[in-house]
């Protein structure tokens, strides 16, 4: 389903959020698209998303520098830059544990979600996707993260 439907339909990519967000107000995610909706629910604070995007951007730039310079040691920048700011952001702003800490499948899906979130930021889709998740959760404008909505916690 491309392009994705507008935010008003409360659908994100191929994950229907009209009955809740998988893993938070709905059943546990079983597909990557459902997990991405859950992932975004764990990244609602703008500073969390910014730190992830900045880290992933620097990480991929270091990977490109490694390729262009022929210095493979620069590949170490991908995980170092990619996660040095991202992991603390969950504890500082989001008040949750990173989704990648939930299990092996979740760890692998989180890597894909990090990339998808970064691409969404640069393509202008990220704000729309986050708003769809916020609507699926029924968050008020003053509720910046799930920590601001104590009745909503990740399953």
Can you offer a commentary on this structure?
This protein is mainly alpha-helical and 155 residues long. It has one domain. The chain contains 6 helices and 2 strands; from the N terminus they run E-E-H-H-H-H-H-H. It has a two-stranded antiparallel sheet. Strand 1 and strand 2 form a beta hairpin. Helix 1 crosses helix 5. The longest helix is centred in the middle third of the chain and has 24 residues. It is elongated. The two termini are 27 Å apart. The N terminus is likely disordered.
Beta content comes to under 5%
The tally of beta strands, per DSSP, is 2
Relative helix content: 40-55%
Name the helix and strand elements from N-terminus to C-terminus, one letter apiece: EEHHHHHH
Q: Poorly predicted ranges (pLDDT <50, ≥5 residues)?
A: 1-11
Structural class: mainly alpha
Instruction: Report the mean per-residue pLDDT as an integer.
Output: 86
Biggest sheet record: 2 strands, antiparallel
Which key terms come to mind for this protein?
155 residues; mainly alpha; two-stranded antiparallel sheet; 2 strands; 54% helix; disordered N terminus
List the topology elements.
Blueprint: E1 11-12, E2 15-16, H1 32-41, H2 46-69, H3 77-84, H4 86-94, H5 104-123, H6 126-137
Antiparallel strand pairs: 1-2
Helix pairs in contact: 1-5, 1-6, 2-3, 2-4, 2-5
In short:
The chain has 155 residues and is mostly helical. The chain has helices spanning 32-41, 46-69, 77-84, 86-94, 104-123, 126-137; strands at residues 11-12, 15-16.
